[in-house]
Design a protein that fits this description.
It is built from six helices and nine strands, in the order H-H-E-E-E-E-H-E-E-H-H-H-E-E-E. The protein is α+β, with helices and mostly antiparallel strands and 228 residues long. It has a domain of 148 residues: Roll (Pnp Oxidase, Chain A). Bound molecules: flavin mononucleotide. The site of flavin mononucleotide has 15 residues, from strand 2, strand 4 and helix 3.
């Protein structure tokens, strides 16, 4: 498969949008997804696709949009980085006090979306979320660069702060405490989404895309093709 990156520059896109937004249109013709080629285990299918994105050196190949919702069902989304996935689920790290953390405390249902534009692929994964163990979170926290550890400890993620100087002063205050390795903050750690559904999307010409959904059953995974 040859990668054929869109050749729009920012100026051309902007010009097209003001002229006629509908002219920004491209066909999806890099690949196809056939039932016969699907893995029976969606985690294995996912691993083929994410490995491909990593091999192609796509920027932020492990970035995923995480959708959560509060108890009233009001949704919110943001990007986080997938740090590992295995039979237990898909893991990322963040602040438990953040907006996403507060929403997950009220409502454990969430959805992840990977979009590898250059491969004309997206994967949607939905399920329920639990916290990773403190031990797992600590192991990851301690593997992070020192700077990231200080930022995580200094930031009350998603809460208002007066200005950048106030934020930097919080980091400086921690740095002044000097030398010793920073302990993982209580409010920081990992989450794990356990999938009950995966959907794989491969763009095709004329918008007749390939979509397959895997739904978890008592004995394994049931696969259906979806209309585009
Ligand atoms: C490429 C990219 C990667 C990111 N990775 C993370 C991450 O792994 N963990 C995290 O807490 N925020 C990450 N962020 C920031 C989040 O998108 C978001 O701003 C932050 O987590 C606060 O979200 P919330 O207020 O909805 O909780 C990332 C943002 C981008 C653009």
């Amino acid at each position: 498969m040859v990668l054929d990156l869109p050749k729009f520059g920012v100026t051309e896109v902007t010009k097209n949008m003001t002229d006629d937004q509908r002219t920004i249109r491209r066909d999806y013709d890099l690949g196809e997804l056939r039932r016969a080629n699907l893995e029976l285990d969606p985690k294995v299918q996912f691993s083929h696709w994410i490995n491909r994105a990593i091999e192609e050196a796509l920027i932020d190949a492990t970035a995923m949009t995480l959708a959560t919702a509060n108890a009233a069902g009001r949704p919110s989304v943001r990007i986080v980085l997938l740090k590992h996935f295995d039979e237990r689920g898909f893991a990322w790290y963040t602040s438990y006090h953040s907006q996403k953390g507060r929403e997950l405390a009220e409502n454990p249902n969430a959805s992840l979306l990977f979009h590898w534009r250059e491969l004309e692929r997206q994967v949607r994964i939905s399920g329920t979320v639990t916290r990773l163990s403190q031990g797992d979170s600590k192991a990851y926290f301690e593997s992070r660069p020192r700077e990231s550890q200080y930022s995580a400890a200094a930031s009350d993620q998603s809460f208002v702060i007066a200005n950048r100087a106030a934020l930097e002063a919080k980091v400086d205050a921690l740095l002044r405490q000097g030398g010793a390795p920073l302990a993982m903050p209580e409010h920081w750690g990992g989450y794990l989404l356990q999938p009950s559904e995966y959907e794989f999307w491969q763009g095709r010409t004329g918008r007749l895309h390939d979509r397959f959904i895997y739904r978890k059953t008592a004995t394994g995974w049931h696969i259906d093709r979806l209309q585009p």
